[in-house]
Each structure stands twice: as structure tokens, then as C-alpha cells.
Amino acid sequence: MRRTWAWVVLASLSLTVALAGCGERVQTIPVGAAKKADSAAWQITDNGFVAPGWTPGDEASWDAQLKKRAQSQNDFATPK
Amino acid sequence: MARMKFICDAERCIECNGCVTACKAEHDVPWGVNRRRVVTLNDGVAGERSIWVACMHCSDAPCMAVCPVDCFYRTAEGVVLHDKDICIGCGYCSYACPFGAPQFPTNGTFGLRGKMDKCTFCAGGPEANGSEAEYEKYGRNRLAEGKLPACAEMCSTKALLGGDGDVVADIFRTRVLNRGKGSEVWGWGTAYGKPAAGAPGALPAAAKKS
């Protein structure tokens, strides 16, 4: 009986080691995969975290928003 | 068109690692991967200096040049990004990068090297802006939300400047001129030049010390 248990434990351990490799994520490149075109940063994002003060979809507005926001890093900027 | 750049002000960095933490938290960066880190030179010696190290979004990026599967691309704002669906995790970019920016998660069993991960300037990846798929692979796309990178926006001493290259260069130039030191180093004039009249951050004549 004890011997049987020893075999069961040994078999379980062997299976655990042997099957460990099966847990890896598939990383193969899908057939026909090509570099995707990225959309511009100023294009509309609809995730609920968009900062107020600019118009999503308007490049000039986005540009101005980032420039304005960058001034928060400027200790010497005159408060407006 | 904005041209995104980072600048590190070594006179201000206090090695708090706040930028590292902000980046980790903002993008749910996996254990073992550091898109950003802080390096201290002459640690413990008077006059030690700390700087952060991350992807500098090079204008002529060596990672792009050596990638055998051409997974890198540059956005209109000059941010160097990559497509994880194309990346094969070979590590060539890691050898080519002078900053050690490319990181490789331990993926699966036996320490298998996963697909490359690096700073995205909080600009996500090629998936739809702000989508779940983009977040899963690259983290938040703060630029598309009208925000600057999390590391730059939360830096307590404002040592980490990020944003449009012209704007952050103006801010840095103003600081250096106010300090009265730093502008004497070789190449400073070439890099930062003279502030244009009326440019954001330009010093009033009375405040100039050099």
C-alpha cells in the first residue's frame, strides 16, 4: 500500500514537472501579422479619463493642451 | 507639431524613485520589469547626483535599426513605440540601447523571455487609443487623454521634465540661468540655445544672472 502511494506521489511530481511547460503563453506571430497603423494621439479616446480643457479630435487643441500642461512643471511661470 | 522629449535635471533629482513608482502603478507594469529607474552616481559621497534612466525616444533610435522583425515605429510626436504582436523577444534592442531601456518580462516557465516592454512616453501602442487591449499590452495612453507622462507630472521636485521639446527646453534653460551655473558646460548652448523673446518660460531681463 505504502509502495503504491509512493508511486502515485512520484507520478504526480513527474507529471507536474513534465506539464509545466504547457503553461506558457502562446507567443507565436499570427500568420499574416503586419505592423498596425497607430492612430494619432489627439484622436478621440473614449475611456472616461480624458482631461478637460481641450477638444478631442482637434490637433491644435491637443497641442495647446499639452503645452499648457507642461507649464505645470515650470516653477518660474507667472501664475495666470 | 509637438516633439516629445524628456529632460533630467540632475540638480533636482533626490532619488525618491517616485517616477519609478508612478510608472509602475500607472501601467500595471509586471514584476521584474522597470520601464524607468533611478541611478545614483557617487552614492554616499558628498555631491552625489541622481538621474533617471528610461527610453529617451531617440531621434535616430538604435533599437529601431537593429530590430530583425521591424516592430518599432515612431509617432508624429517623435515617440518611439513598438508592436508587441510583431516582437519576438530576441533582445537585440536591449543590446543596442545605450540606456538599457528595453525590458523583458519573465514569461511562463523556465525563465522564458517574454516580449519586450519599455517606456511608451505614456502613449500606449498601435491598438485603439484608450482601449482595453492597448492597456493590457502597453499601459495607459495618457497623451491621448490630453495629459503628459505620469512620471513627469508627479515628479515632486520637477527634476523629470517631459513634454514638447521646445517647452521643456525653455523651462530647463530658465532654471539654469536662474541658478547661475550649468550653462558653462560644453554643448549647453547648442542644446538649449537662447530663449526666444516671449517664449514660454523666458526670463525677464531683471532675473537673468548670466
Can you describe this structure?
- The complex is a heterodimer of chains A (80) and B (210).
- By secondary structure, chain A is mainly α.
- Chain A has a domain at 41-73.
- Helix content of chain A is 38%, strand content 0%.
- Chain A has helices spanning 2-19, 59-70.
- Chain B is built from 7 helices and 6 strands, in the order βαββαββαααβαα.
- Chain B has helices at residues 18-27, 62-66, 92-96, 132-138, 150-154, 165-179, 188-192; strands at 4-8, 36-41, 49-54, 72-74, 80-82, 160-164.
- In chain B, a hairpin with a 5-residue loop joins β4 and β5.
- The longest helix of chain B is centred in the last third of the chain and has 15 residues, at 165-179.
- Residues 197-210 of chain B have low confidence and may be disordered.
- The chains are: A mainly alpha (80), B alpha+beta (210).
- The interface between A and B is large, with 43 and 57 residues.
Query: Which overall shape of chain A is indicated by the principal axes computed on the Cα atoms?
Result: elongated
What gap, in angstroms, lies between the N and C termini of chain A?
85 Å
Structural class of chain B: alpha+beta
Main beta sheet strand tally, sense and closure of chain A: none
H/E element string of chain B? EHEEHEEHHHEHH
Number of strands of chain B: 6
Proportion of residues in helical segments of chain B: 10-25%
**What is the mean pLDDT of chain A?**
83
Mean pLDDT of chain B: 89
SSE run of chain A: HH
Rg of chain B, Å, rounded: 18 Å
CATH arch. level architecture of the largest domain in chain B: 2-Layer Sandwich
Task: Provide a count of the helices of chain B.
Answer: 7
Low-confidence stretches of chain A: none
Number of strands of chain A: 0
Secondary structural class of chain A? mainly alpha
Instruction: Please tell me how large the radius of gyration of chain A is.
Output: 28 Å
Helix share bin of chain A:
25-40%
Beta-strand percentage range of chain A: under 5%
Could you give the order of strands across the largest sheet of chain B?
Answer: 1-6
Q: How much β-strand is present in the residues of chain B?
A: 5-15%
